Amino acid sequence: MEFIKSLCLGGIATTMLLSGCTQKSITLEGKVTNTSGAPIVYNITTDGIYLPNKIDTLRLNADSTYQITLPVNGNEKLSLFLYGERNLGSIYLAPGKQTLDIDASKFNELNPVDGLTKENEILKKLADLNENVFNLRARRGDIFNAGKDTVASSVYQKLTDYATTLENEVTEVDDQLRQRAIQDIRIQALMAYMNQYFGNYRRGSETVKKEWDDAYAQMLDFANVGQAESVFSPAFADVVSNMAGIDIFMKHERRTNDDNERNQLLFDWYKTNLKGRVQETAMGLLILEDESREYFATGISALYEEFKTLYPKSVLMPKLETAIQKNKAFNETELPKDIHILNTDSVRTFKEITDLYPGKAIFIDVWATWCGPCRASFAHIKPLQKYAAENDIVLLYVSIDTPQKAELWKKMTGHYNLKGEHVIINEAFKMEIYEKFGRNGILSIPHYAIVNKEGELQFPSAASPENMDKLTEQLKEASK
């Protein structure tokens, strides 16, 4: 019984059914200030597993207060963000009720009332480390002094020294958080090393490559990714994906543009090279990535069935089941009659397409299945669809996907209910699209344009459907 109790409180992911555990919860409440109208979103670990894309929105009352209750089995980390603007920080929470007032104008300054004071001091250090590693990767800062260092052993020493110093500050907390914090620090250090490894390896001589490989092996030993608490780190998903990619695609020089093949290769690598909680989490995150990034690869269901055989009692199972249902629904989507897929095999110019609609204004949306902002923009299309139907305006969606993505493209048009005309570019008019709607051969998407009733490109850069007031004005002018 004591063993079962320790598993319940420790937040350890296991294939064992913890029927003796009593489900607990964390209730957090407080007041929010200085949001500037932007929503606050949050992420909470699941049994100590950081799930990078499991984001929920904090619902505010009319007086800017909030209250959320989250089911847990033990202590968890809650991270909050002012959407699209800043990381507000993370806090360590025990089951029960706590108060947290949120000033959304501040970075990493969360201070719960009657919370785990020492634990949250450590989480602030971890949040700073995560930000510093991100800055290194984005070339926005380099607190490690490693960004311009081309000597592998020197980069290794700088990062491990920094990590070791930070580890020594993880004191006066229970052993579980201590192990979680140490592994987060080490996984972040490995992520920083990988950032330097990729750039220097690609342009290095064989001697230089060997030096970076040798230091990489040392860095792997230091990080010890196989430790169960590695899954607490926000960098875990990227690190294990990079580890597999280095082995599969760099060392063995495999190449693939097929999502199903890529997923299978990664899944098999995790199966061969990882064990236990780390393997379970890496496999689960691979499946959840398909949902969060809306890839909807047809082979994900098979990976899920294999995962379910390996880890039938996984704490991730409810989230995976939801993801698989979305994947199946997407892949079973049938195109409605008001979505028209045009055959562009014989088309040589983009004007041949717009000439199909003489005397009508045409709203053009240039997008791609892999473009997250494009997919996000489809949440705002209903007012545009209504206006277009009432005013005889053509909605023309132009995909810049490759022919290999044609089936995914068609399914996605139905998934988002993109009523209108649809074309995927071919090589004949590909450059015309990039020149007409891009700049110096670079096309930023989503991109919107309007052709008027005379067949002229009146607005080569039109307003977004999110700004319907301005877009309506442009469409009215083009329809004269």
From TrEMBL:
GO terms for biological process: cytochrome complex assembly. Residues 461-480 are annotated as: Disordered. It is found in: Cell envelope. Its main location: other. This is Thioredoxin domain-containing protein. The keyword Disulfide bond applies. Residues 324-480 form the Thioredoxin domain. GO terms for molecular function: oxidoreductase activity. Residues 467-480 have a biased composition (Basic and acidic residues). The keyword Disulfide bond applies. InterPro entries: Redoxin, Thioredoxin-like_sf, Thioredoxin_CS, Thioredoxin_domain, Thioredoxin_ResA/DsbE_sf. One of its GO terms (cellular component) is cell envelope. Keywords: Cytochrome c-type biogenesis, Disulfide bond, Redox-active center. It comes from Bacteroides cellulosilyticus CL02T12C19.
